[in-house]
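User: Structure tokens for this complex, please. No commentary.
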Amino acid sequence: MARPREFDEESALNAARDQFWMTGYAGTSMDAIAAATGLGKGSLYGAFGGKRELFHRVYDDHCNATIDSANRHLSGADEQAFERLTAYLLGHATACAERRQHGCLVAKATAELAEHDEVVSARSLTTFENVQLALTGNLEACQRNGDIHPAADAQQLAGLLLTVHRGIEALGKAGTDESTLRSITETALAGLPRPPR
Amino acid sequence: MARPREFDEESALNAARDQFWMTGYAGTSMDAIAAATGLGKGSLYGAFGGKRELFHRVYDDHCNATIDSANRHLSGADEQAFERLTAYLLGHATACAERRQHGCLVAKATAELAEHDEVVSARSLTTFENVQLALTGNLEACQRNGDIHPAADAQQLAGLLLTVHRGIEALGKAGTDESTLRSITETALAGLPRPPR
DNA sequence: AGCGTTCTTGACTACATCGTCCATAACCCT
DNA sequence: AGGGTTATGGACGATGTAGTCAAGAACGCT
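Assistant:
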């Protein structure tokens, strides 16, 4: 019927995402994306529309991946729930430090665009809400397993942990070193209400 | 001896800062800054150098103002130290929500530029360190006044509160509502170790 | 008042950038 | 095999952008 695509859509989107991730929305030119993906501009515009639409597509995919990752890391048997929580948060602290300022795309895009782009701010908000939900589920599992005080409000605590998570991200971008980020995370975990014994 | 400046340097810098604050570094053109300040481009370049140098100047001033503000809000008599702490953090939560996504310039600049601009990342880091110092001083005052457990590590707790502060900023930019931001802040404050009685 | 010095204004250059368009290529169905 | 249809690549136009420059304006010192 017609000529098929030559390029792989997913890897093109990944290349575009990495470019936006590195140089931001305003700082990334469509020529740079064309170079990064290897596509001609005709193909780029034909397949994805303009710059804004391409970014929205890329951002949507990335937000979903972020939510999936949180769910994957935080869900499982109650017995290891607390262990998964600490691994998730400490892993993030280490990752923030290791990537040395090449932080999270959600944070970067939100900071740059949320103010002006309703689509981005809405997507960021639901991403945070979903990560918080994953944390809430995990904390409830911790409560069932006796690692967290049963009377504590899991949703409140999840909100706090999400906030710490985003704060670690922000500090990491400024260059705070790994041991500091980890010890802040540990302080946050140590502040969680333990069950009476 | 020579013709004096017609414009007020400080208000020009403020106008430039607001422009960068609104549209980011890459998203702000020198023409936009010329329009915002009312200066011709010749004056702009003559007085401040290029775009990057202007931004560094603006950013430096803003970081100092941020540090000063933290010190002003957090220092004072031991008796009201805890009160000042809660006012500082809750005030920030409210401000984040009220400004509706027009967040903090330090966060925005760090997210956009820290990765590529050594000067910005260094300035961001020292800003965070100084705010943490102000928080540490406040927490030590709280300890002297018996509001915080005397054996607690004030610096660790200050690191956590700074992280929460930055996290609230990030969540606020995505559009999280005021009551949520405030209750997260209250949860963080409630998790501070209280003195034995 | 006259002069040297600095400031101001905005036209100008050189290049970057978004998006379009079209000639050509590749494929599928009949 | 041929034709209809869609993809490709890159030239192109219009506008945006960083930074320069020169002609003139405003001041203070003598």
